[in-house]
Amino acid sequence: QVQLVETGGGLVQAGGSLRLSCAASGRTLSRYTMAWFRQAPGKEREFVSAISWSGGGTSYADSVKGRFAISRDDAKNTVWLQMNSLKPEDTAVYYCAGRDRFRADYEYWGQGTQVTVSS
Asked: CA dihedral defined by 57, 100, 65, 75, rounded to 10 degrees?
């Protein structure tokens, strides 16, 4: 089992930055593809970004491309999401998720951290 805990959310003005952290325990993350998802009030949960288990590949939703950056340090068992040039539409609860590299579905989820961007 892998336990994921997100931190770093908060209230920020439009144009500002936040850095979310996802700390894992239970198992090393080195064999897991890790991702960030978000869910805004009244909306479906959506994919934000992912990083491959090797760290060599990243992907981003079009809405955050060029503004957000995902990274990982397996020695620290931590994944980060650097969010720059934040917009009010980025307001959501952000979730960290992980899946074994041979699985298609994300099997581990954190409890989420709230990000609120004021205009």
From this structure: -70
